[in-house]
Write a structure and sequence with these properties.
Blueprint (H helix, E strand, L loop, with lengths): L5 E5 L2 H9 L7 E2 L5 E2 L5 E5 L10 E5 L6 E5 H5 L13 H12 L8 H24 L2 E3 L10 E6 L7 E5 H5 L6 H7 L15 H6 L3 H10 L13 E4 L4 H12 L12 H18 L3 E4 H11 L6 H11 L4
Antiparallel strand pairs: 1-4, 2-3, 5-6, 7-8, 8-9, 10-11
Helix pairs in contact: 4-8, 9-10
């Protein structure tokens, strides 16, 4: 059960527009050019109902089973659309309720039909594992997923000359470098391939830092293409363009955009990464799309200032129904 009625949020440029559109008055001052500005670090107290449904802001909740009070990310509260919350000790209570409604038993494995359903779901898990490896730049050689800690064979797309390597899904899921050469380069500072003499594009570098958000987006939508419902060759589409979120991040932190990654300190990079990820969750999950359809969408609508309405129009008008 949600306990908070109001929460305090930090303001970036797009958040300012969002909350102003809801009628909130945000304090501003005039700069030397007589332009209205919002002071860096300004926070706003809002009604909990005005928080985006997929925000990762932590809110106070009470377990609906044992009544324990604890903090929980807001999107995890809204995820099931039932208004119920279960602490880590009672988390299986939700599964029991769901199974009773869906299968008529408290454990899905108790019926033949549910066993078949679970078997299908286990097979589907391979697709999510495959996407996780692909996000890290790896192509799976194995065609079956057994368990999270079992080594799986893969080929690094960046270093195919090394040949087949092995890593567990759990290691890759956590974002750890599993390719031996990638790992070496990530520990070699400015002499590494990644730094390219300090000329690595800013955009490219920070795109590699949002893998967890991509994975959460895929999980939220059940690893299905928003347009077709299929699960093949998925990518994650930004409803708010990545470049816009990155720009807001720099503006929020009052950090200048420089020519290359090599021009930033490690402390600045860590701060930008943390804020960028938080802003991604604030603007909401990305939308899974088939890779070819994603390319077709941006061919029609460009790659700047895209909107959710464009996506709906693409789905209804331009998508070829087979």
């Amino acid at each position: 059960m949600l306990l908070d009625e109001k929460v305090e949020v930090s303001l970036g440029s797009r958040r300012i527009k969002y909350y102003e559109s809801l009628g909130y008055e945000i304090p501003k001052y005039k700069d030397k050019q007589n332009r209205l500005k919002v002071k860096k670090g300004t926070k706003l107290l809002i009604d909990i109902k005005d928080l985006p449904f997929n925000s990762n802001l932590e809110v106070n909740v009470k377990c609906d089973n044992c009544e324990k009070k604890y903090l929980k990310q807001y999107y995890k509260h809204t995820k099931y659309n039932d208004g119920l919350d279960y602490c880590i000790d009672c988390r299986f209570q939700r599964s029991k309720i769901t199974n009773l409604k869906k299968y008529g038993v408290d454990n899905a494995s108790k019926t033949d039909e549910s066993r078949r359903t679970l078997s299908v779901n286990r097979r589907k898990d391979f697709e999510s594992v495959k996407i996780t490896f692909e996000d890290m730049g790896y192509t799976l050689v194995d065609k079956e997923y057994v368990r999270y800690d079992k080594p799986m064979r893969f080929i690094c797309n960046e270093h195919p000359e090394i040949g087949v390597q092995e890593s567990s899904y759990d290691t890759v899921r956590k974002g750890h470098k599993s390719c031996s050469k990638c790992y070496y380069e990530s520990r070699s500072g400015k002499n590494s391939h990644f730094w390219q003499g300090g000329k690595t594009p800013i955009n490219h570098h920070f795109r590699s830092e949002i893998k967890e958000w991509k994975q959460d987006s895929l999980e939220y939508y059940g690893f299905k293409c928003f347009l077709t419902g299929n699960k093949d060759d998925l990518v994650v589409h930004h409803v708010v363009n990545f470049s816009n979120i990155l720009e807001d991040t720099f503006n929020e932190l009052n950090i200048d955009v420089k020519d290359s990654i090599g021009d930033y300190s490690n402390e600045e990079l860590d701060l930008i990464k943390e804020t960028l990820i938080n802003n991604h969750y604030f603007y909401g999950f990305g939308i899974p799309m088939n890779k070819d359809l994603h390319y077709k969408f941006h061919s029609l609508y460009g790659r700047e200032n895209n909107t959710y309405e464009q996506l709906i129009e693409f789905k209804n008008t331009h998508l070829e129904v087979s």
